Amino acid sequence: MGGALGAGRARPAVLAMVTIAALAVAVTLAGAAGASREKTSKPSGTPASLIAQAKADVLAAAGWPKTWKGPTTPTTPQKVKNIVLISCSQATACARETAGSAAGAKVIGWHTTVVDGKGDPNVMSAAIRNAVVSGASGIILESTGVSALVDALKFAKSHHVPVVNNGAIAAKQAGVDPSLVAGSNPDPNVQRGKVSADWMIWNSNGTAGVVIFRTTDAGLQTRDAATVARLKQCTGCTILFQDVVGFDITTTPKMTQEINSILDRFGNKVKYIRDPYSAADAFAVPALQARGRSDVQVLSDAPSTLQMQQCYQGKNIGAVYGDDLNWVGWEGVDMMNRVLEHPGVAPPAENTVYVMLLSPKFARPGTPKSALCPADNNFSGSNPVDFAAKYKQLWGIK
Question: 195 and 283: one domain?
Answer without folding.
Answer: yes
